[in-house]
Amino acid sequence: MIYEIDFKHFRPFSLTEELTHFTHKIDFLEGESEDDVESGTNEEDLQSENKQDQTRREQQWPWESVRNKLRNALSEVCILLDVLQVMKEKKYLVLEPVSQNPEPPKQVVQMIGKRKSLAKAAEIIRNGAERMKQRDSEENDDVLPQVQPLRQDYYTELMRLRQKWKVKKIGNMITGDLSYKSAGSTFWHRGLFEVLKTEDLPEDERSSSLCPLTVRVSSDLEGHSRIRVKISDSTEAEDMDLDDKHQGSNSVQAQNLNGHASNIDSPHPSPWQKTLKQAQYNLFCKELFSQISREAFHSKNVNSVQVSGKTIRLQLYPTAFAEIIYEKTSKDEGISYEALLSGNGDVLEFRLQKLLHEQHLSRVDTPTPQPANAPWTTRDHTIANLQDFFAKKNAAFIPRAPLLLDEFYDELKHVVLRKRTNNLLHQMATTHRDPSIAVEWSANAGPKTSFANIHMFSKRQKLCYRTSFHFRIELDKIEAVNMTGKTVSMSGELEDVQEYVKMQVSLHFAHVALGIFENFEWKILQHPNDIGMDMQDQSFHLKARSSSHECSLALSVYPDYSFHIHTQKALAADEDPNLTTILDTRWTRVEGKATSIDWKALPGFSFADKFYGLVASLS
């Protein structure tokens, strides 16, 4: 039997066709539940549907079913992603557990919690207070030995002494230096003190303090010293003591100079610190008075100097004298240093001490800062230059620094002149209430120059007139500058100053009269002279005519607070028959005879009130 077999050659599947073939074999309904499959249709319906699906698939795109399945899966994943994002951002949907009714809090539990919190806070505050108390007790030098055992340590006190004073050991002795030689002083006194242990001293010499260290100074530096300056002026009612009202801002500096009047180091200094400070201040006063006494015999600028004992008397003016007194109280008198300095604050005493300090600094040629252990000596090139200078012929023309006494003498003369000027202005202001005189002293004054602004006021209701001028007070002269800038130099005599102030008062009244004329619109015919340079002519004259040209008024002001007033009124035609023949109208109003007015009879308390009423009645 022979069979006829036909062979047909089929082309192999491509990658796309092979993928499609295998994809059709996937059953996507395999993961669905059986209930869903049974609830669909029966077997016959399934077969019919399968046939219809087969025909539909053949007609549609082979990837259609795959696309539908993937699209459904993508939509489900997108929905799940949106739900997760909303839950994460918590904007529109929040997942929270179901709230239950909270239990009411118990007051006993709250009370116990508050009590524990308050107990912890109280413990913290108590610990902080104990630490602060312990720190204050450690800083206090006057506490009991059991609180600060280092207080009884001799070497600890010696270390504190070395931190503030120059101390060195010579053999078995420990000595120190109180002098100002390291600051430029050339005083002969060595200023040595000795450091001793309190337990080595006899019982009668031991102090009642608990300090284990004691210092011993020389007998001439014990006690309390002070240099006092007193000015007596016969022109004044009483002497000018140390209090200077115009420069009282320097009183704090005078009290705190070198730390003598106040202890800056600690609120409770050691006994040896008080003793050394007082001894150093006594040495400073001793050097100061010794130098002034020595310069009193060599000074050529100071007139009539008398040195007797512990007092130096200087003649400043024929009626003004100054005394520089060296006061010292011994240790046994029991007068405290604070009682000796009662009322201290004198600018003169402070200036005298400052002059000596400046003289010390001028001798020191070493630039600061420098090491504490470096020697205070002059430079080598400075000594060489001085030797070359003295070898020349012009060695006689060496410029010398002014003496301390000469500088202080000039300052004393300036103080007297300033005090006299101030008293004169005060006397004139209290004697004559019109105008009101106010004196303003400048705070930028120097030791030999002072400035004062004098203001004169006259008030009349809402009107206020003011005239000001300026005083520059120097040693022997006073310069006055008015509002226009003109300067007048005067000697130190009070008569010249008084005459100038009276001239300013007369000019002030003239300016007040001008202001009243301008207020009523009067025409000024004669203007008063400005602040004249001639001190002899101190009267001012002015003349004005009313706006209606019916009356004119002439005023003369004199420095003795006297006023002369004359008025002139226009003549009528019936009073003078010659006026009828005048054809020009400019000559129709000719002033008649002058009539004098009694100034004292005018109503009013001040010049402005009286003159204002007079001009108002004539307007």
Radius of gyration: 54 Å
User: Which spans have pLDDT < 50 for at least 5 consecutive residues?
Assistant: 142-151, 241-267, 334-345, 530-534
Structural classification = alpha+beta
What sort of overall outline do the alpha carbons produce when their principal axes are compared? flat
Percent of residues in beta strands?
15-25%
Q: How many helices does DSSP assign? A: 14
Oligomer: single chain
Mean pLDDT figure:
76
Strand arrangement within the widest β-sheet reads: 9-10-11-12-13
Structure keywords:
619 residues; alpha+beta; five-stranded antiparallel sheet; 14 helices; 18 strands
Explain what you see:
The protein is built from 14 helices and 18 strands. The chain is of the alpha+beta class and 619 residues long. Among the domains are: 150-351, no CATH class; 428-506; 510-618, no CATH class. A 5-stranded antiparallel beta sheet has the order 9-10-11-12-13, with helices on one face. A hairpin with a 2-residue loop joins strand 1 (166-170) and strand 2. Helix 10 packs antiparallel against helix 12, helix 12 packs across helix 13 (494-519) and helix 13 (494-519) runs parallel beside helix 14 (607-618). It starts with 14 loop residues before the first helix and ends with a helix.
